[in-house]
Amino acid sequence: MSYFCAYDIRDGVGYVYATYHDTESLEGVDGVTVDVLPEPIDNGKDPVLKVNLTDARLYYDYEEPKTADPYTPKVIELEQRITNTELDLAMTQLALTETFEELQVTRQEAADSQLALTELYELMLAGQTGLEAEQTTKGGDEDNG
After folding, report:
1. What pTM was computed for the model?
2. Residues 58 and 34: beta-carbon distance below 8 Å
3. How many domains are contained in the chain?
4. Do both 98 and 136 map to the same domain?
5. Contact between 1 and 33 (Cβ < 8 Å)
6. For residue 39, what are the domain limits?
7. Distance, CA of 124 to CA of 27 (rounded, Å)
8. Distances, alpha carbon 8 to alpha carbons 50, 59, 79, 140, in Å
9. Same domain, yes or no, for 88 and 27?
10. Is there a single domain that holds both residue 84 and residue 128?
11. Same-domain status, 81 and 113
12. Residue 54 sits in the same domain as residue 79
């Protein structure tokens, strides 16, 4: 049994687009007749059946598989950007949380310092008042004696 392989020529290369067993209705179609079709190699790439236009020999070229969705690389890039942005936001949130906690500690230390100064001031006033009272008492004793 022989096969008729119809092809188109693009950029000087014959690309097989169909294989027929019946050649009666294919008048005027560019093609070659062969007895055996070559077997493609399973190498993970897409086999593309071509025709050598010089000697009408069939052969396979292998191309990288095309993705089903042409936007897949863009989607992957956007997902990576989103992931990176989320990571940046998480790091920023962590830094802000640490800064807030440090600010709270600083405020508490300032409040504690202010309280200690107030207590010291009150002690000084009490001591001064007590000293004045003692001096007044001593001074009054001298006047009486």
Report:
1. 0.43
2. yes
3. 2
4. yes
5. no
6. 3-63
7. 119
8. 9, 15, 40, 129
9. no
10. yes
11. yes
12. no
Comparing CA positions, the residue from 7, 39, 38, 9 lying closest to residue 20 is: 7
Amino acid letter for position 76: I
Signed CA dihedral, 53, 54, 56, 58: sign only: negative
Distances 47 to 5, 20, 70, 121, 144 between C-alpha atoms, Å: 16, 19, 20, 92, 126
Please list the alpha-helical segments (H only) found in the chain: 72-144
SS3 46: strand
Give the residue ranges of DSSP H helices in 28-71: none
Query: How far apart are alpha carbons 12 and 6 in whole angstroms?
Result: 15
Q: pLDDT tens across 38-88, in order?
A: 999 999 899 999 999 889 899 999 998 876 666 777 778 888 888 888 888
Write out the two tokens for 94. Answer: 């962590």
Do 7 and 16 touch, CB atoms closer than 8 A? Answer: yes
Please tell me whether residues 58 and 117 are part of one structural domain.
no
10 in the same domain as 81: no
Quote the tokens at residue 79.
Answer: 């997902």
